[in-house]
Design goal:
This protein has five helices and eight strands, in the order ββββααββαβαβα. It is an alpha/beta fold. The protein has a single domain, classed as Leucine Aminopeptidase, subunit E, domain 1, CATH 3.40.220. An eight-stranded mixed β-sheet has the order 1-2-3-8-7-4-6-5, sandwiched between helices. It binds ligand AR6. Ligand AR6 binds next to strand 4 and helix 1.
Length: 191
Amino acid sequence: MEKHTTVSGEEMERDFGSGTIQLARGDITKESTDAVVNAANESLLGGGGVDGAIHRAGGPAILEECRAIRARQGGCPPGEAVVTGGGRLPARFVIHTVGPVWRGGDQGEPAILASCYRNALRLAAEKGLRSVSFPSIATGAYGYPVGKAAAVALSTVATFLAEEKGAPPRVRFVLFDEETLRAYRESLASL
Ligand code: AR6
């Protein structure tokens, strides 16, 4: 399903079907893709890490919408995703998904992590979005080993791009630190 691979500086991209996966190092709150994905928790009420950064940069409108979603459906179970506006972020939407807490890898963690990526991309496709930026879901506070998470993340997104007609044509992984970027680069090269 691959078309080509390019590497320039720290950036890397690879095509799958009619879509492209891009890897970059950076702060996801600066991304001007149609949506950014938040690594939230089941409460949807904010937290540390990328969740804290998105709520700080996006302002109170995002939390207000999260509260409304909570009132309607309770929280967001691991593997599922919900969407809000982007508040003051450059991105128009935030897709909030909840990763698995790592408990050794035999408690369904890979399947839950794959669901996060699939459900986030489904929401993006339903809204007709053209570009989405993901962080490395679950590899911070939730403790998922980054090499294993990168393999699940990239293979799930690559399959979605290759198989789903309405998939957003550009999917970025915006990775906060060098070690995480390296793990994703190695994984993308070996897909
Ligand atoms: N841009 C991109 N990536 C970031 C940013 C940023 N601004 N800030 C941190 N990261 P984590 P999790 C990276 O802990 O493991 C929260 O409290 C970070 O370096 O944010 O899914 C939630 O409320 C790491 O590589 O998410 C939950 O309770 C990656 O984002 C819990 O943490 C994910 O780390 C979720 O834990």
